[in-house]
Write a structure and sequence with these properties.
Blueprint lengths: L13 H17 L11 H8 L3 H13 L3 E4 L3 E4 L17
Antiparallel strand pairs: 1-2
Helix pairs in contact: 1-3
Length: 96
Amino acid sequence: MVVLTRETPTMPRPTHVAHIVADVQARIESGEWPPGHRLPSIREMRILYDCSETPVKTATRILEATGWVEGRVGLGVFVAERPPRHSGTGRPDPVA
């Protein structure tokens, strides 16, 4: 039986993933990364967040699943044209 711990390479540390997701959302909400902006590559994000590829990919999947970004095959990951909006609750506001 394999026991997965925080140090298991196949499991990203939740703090890395949460930090990346929160930082990307903040950059989008502040306008630093406007709709249509191409996010840095996986390699660039690894350097930016000082982590391995796995938490970057996990965070990107979460951001895509929640509507913040859109992946385009062969082109990269881009800020969604209509990213979710927050009202300070920590959750996206309902789409009007």
